[in-house]
């Protein structure tokens, strides 16, 4: 039901919902991954199989660092989704709303017809296989493509069977699950083809897509930027060098860093970002280095040299600040003896 | 049960113990005695447990001649300690070519990968210390790519520059209170990991 444009125009919107940064558009997701080395984590789950996390889908949740990198480099902007929705739907005019409801109804009816035709085709095939052609006549009658014609007409077939089919059809689509199929208890003599009730999966056909902030706002002020943990400078540094990052929880670090797309490469580094004068235990270095070597990776620690940052900011100005490398990374591997 | 003063102690102090408790006079060092004994302890471990040679203490930076943040060691491991993955690929290629060449001559030699040992910097630390990136960067700021050769000219010639050695590295020696020493390589920069 989503209308896909196929291309992404930058800057693209990132939805902020409850301080999580989400991408709902498949094109934006693939664009972010292809062009900007941003993987994110797919979090859309099947409600009753939430442990099946191999099969997650949209939306894509971005780490705050990822969202911030995209915004800072001008590839994306943050949209407060709650605000946009509340404003958008309360201010929506009656005509637009009715128009949208009508479109949804039409789509639902179309879907119902398609579904019914498919079911009838299936049953005809099944009967044919068994050599039972008795119902050809009935099937021919009820498979009329126009639902309005069917809704008035009666179906003389086996009512119980028809009811079953209908119930099956509704359940399969999953969108009208809570509409109790009336046909199960007492099948009515005359069958009206019910349209499917479609839950719109996108909110940007009804709402007009939020526009990027005007250039007056850019470069974005710190207030609009996602708040990021202290490890952000290391993330930005590795990202600027073309590395891909994924959350590092499973290795007890901030990021696991890949030299290319994680689908093609094993990760190279287990990265922990820290402040320039933040104290760390040597035991952490030993542990991280040992774990990293055990899984054929290196343990990477790094942080931003505050003194360098201060001077480069003053001398070079804001535009060049990013180019001056203020982040010092160190890689740790087991020495092997 | 009292012990008379002239009795021998039940346990002789270990050579390491006496090495450390001996009054140390390290010329040119302005570092804390605890850091000096730490360096000597690591030096002892490397020399006698891991057969390192040419171990030397450094108190001043070979680059600036400023005092180092703490005494460092340099030494030569018995085998090559670190082979960069790209260098490993190159070494394997040359080894394979050599094997093929020898096969054509009729000899059936196995694949021989030779990597000469290289001098390494060693940074002695104690496990209960706290470190920061700042201090680590100060350590790297005081050292060069390769430890300076000893005064004798012979070692200078024996130390060909390895073109693969492009980032500074130190061997982080961490001493546990129970005198276990563990060694980790710390690179200054992003260096891809070895595929062990």
From TrEMBL, chain A:
Enzyme class name: lyase
Enzyme Commission numbers on file: 4.6.1.16
The keyword tRNA processing appears for this protein: yes
Domain tRNA intron endonuclease catalytic: 230-302
PANTHER family: TRNA-SPLICING ENDONUCLEASE SUBUNIT SEN34, TRNA-SPLICING ENDONUCLEASE SUBUNIT SEN34-RELATED
Function: Constitutes one of the two catalytic subunit of the tRNA-splicing endonuclease complex, a complex responsible for identification and cleavage of the splice sites in pre-tRNA. It cleaves pre-tRNA at the 5'- and 3'-splice sites to release the intron. The products are an intron and two tRNA half-molecules bearing 2',3'-cyclic phosphate and 5'-OH termini. There are no conserved sequences at the splice sites, but the intron is invariably located at the same site in the gene, placing the splice sites an invariant distance from the constant structural features of the tRNA body.
Protein name, per record: tRNA-splicing endonuclease subunit Sen34
Organism listed in the record: Lophiostoma macrostomum CBS 122681
Upper lineage: Eukaryota, Fungi, Dikarya, Ascomycota, Pezizomycotina
TrEMBL record, chain B:
InterPro entries per UniProt: Sen15_fungi (IPR042777), tRNA-endonuc_su_Sen15 (IPR018593), tRNA_endonuc-like_dom_sf (IPR011856), tRNA_intron_Endo_cat-like_sf (IPR036167)
Keywords from the UniProt entry: tRNA processing
Presence of the UniProt keyword NADP in the record: no
MF (Gene Ontology): nucleic acid binding; tRNA-intron lyase activity
GO terms, biological process: tRNA-type intron splice site recognition and cleavage
Ranges for region Disordered: 94-113
Domain tRNA-splicing endonuclease subunit Sen15 residue range list: 41-196
One cellular component (GO) term of this entry: tRNA-intron endonuclease complex
Pfam short name (any one): Sen15
tRNA processing recorded as keyword: yes
Basic and acidic residues composition-biased segments: 96-107
Similarity comment text for this entry: Belongs to the SEN15 family.
The name this protein goes by in its record: tRNA-splicing endonuclease subunit Sen15 domain-containing protein
Organism: Lophiostoma macrostomum CBS 122681
Lineage of source species: Eukaryota, Fungi, Dikarya, Ascomycota, Pezizomycotina
């Amino acid at each position: 039901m989503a209308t896909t444009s196929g291309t992404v125009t930058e800057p693209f919107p990132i939805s902020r919902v409850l301080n999580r940064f989400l991408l709902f558009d498949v094109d934006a997701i693939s664009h972010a991954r292809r062009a900007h080395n941003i993987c994110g984590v797919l979090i859309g789950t099947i409600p009753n199989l939430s442990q099946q996390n191999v099969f997650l889908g949209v939306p894509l949740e971005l780490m705050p660092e990822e969202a911030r990198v995209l915004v800072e480099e001008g590839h994306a902007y943050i949209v407060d989704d709650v605000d946009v929705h509340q404003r958008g739907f309360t201010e929506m005019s009656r005509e637009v709303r009715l128009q949208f409801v009508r479109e949804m109804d039409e789509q639902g009816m179309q879907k119902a017809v398609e579904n019914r035709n498919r079911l009838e085709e299936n049953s005809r095939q099944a009967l044919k296989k068994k050599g039972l052609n008795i119902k050809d006549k009935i099937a021919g009658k009820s498979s009329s493509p126009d639902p309005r014609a069917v809704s008035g007409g009666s179906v003389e077939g086996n009512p119980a069977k028809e009811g079953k089919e209908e119930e099956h059809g509704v359940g399969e689509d999953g969108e009208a699950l809570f509409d109790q199929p009336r046909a199960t208890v007492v099948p009515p003599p005359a069958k009206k083809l019910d349209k499917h009730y479609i839950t719109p999966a996108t909110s940007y056909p009804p709402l007009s897509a939020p526009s990027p902030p005007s250039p007056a706002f850019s470069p974005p002020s710190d207030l609009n930027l996602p708040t990021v943990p202290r490890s952000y400078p290391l993330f930005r540094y590795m990202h600027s060098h073309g590395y891909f990052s994924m959350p590092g929880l499973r290795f007890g670090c901030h990021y696991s860093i890949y030299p290319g797309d994680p689908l093609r490469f094993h990760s190279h580094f287990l990265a922990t970002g820290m402040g320039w004068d933040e104290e760390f235990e040597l035991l952490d270095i030993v542990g991280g280095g040992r774990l990293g070597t055990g899984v054929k990776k290196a343990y990477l620690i790094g942080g931003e040299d505050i003194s360098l940052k201060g001077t480069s900011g003053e001398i070079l100005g804001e535009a060049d600040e990013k180019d001056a490398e203020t982040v010092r990374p160190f890689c740790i591997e087991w020495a092997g003896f | 049960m009292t012990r008379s003063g002239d009795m021998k102690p039940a346990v002789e102090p270990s050579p390491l113990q006496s090495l450390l408790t001996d009054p140390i006079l390290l010329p040119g060092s302005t570092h804390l005695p605890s850091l000096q004994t730490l360096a000597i302890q690591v030096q002892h471990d490397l020399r006698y447990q891991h057969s390192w040679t040419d171990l030397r203490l450094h108190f001043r930076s070979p680059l600036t001649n400023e005092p180092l943040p703490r005494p460092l060691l340099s030494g030569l491991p018995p085998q090559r300690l670190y082979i960069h993955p790209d260098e490993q690929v190159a070494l394997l290629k040359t080894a394979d070519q050599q094997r093929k060449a020898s096969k054509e001559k009729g000899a059936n030699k196995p694949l021989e990968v030779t990597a000469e040992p290289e001098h390494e910097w060693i940074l002695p630390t104690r496990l209960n210390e706290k470190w920061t990136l700042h201090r680590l960067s100060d350590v790297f700021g005081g050292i060069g790519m390769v430890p300076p050769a000893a005064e004798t000219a012979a070692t200078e010639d024996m130390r060909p520059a390895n073109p693969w050695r492009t980032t500074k590295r130190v061997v982080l020696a961490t001493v546990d209170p129970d005198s276990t020493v563990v060694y980790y390589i710390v690179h200054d920069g992003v260096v891809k990991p070895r595929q062990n």
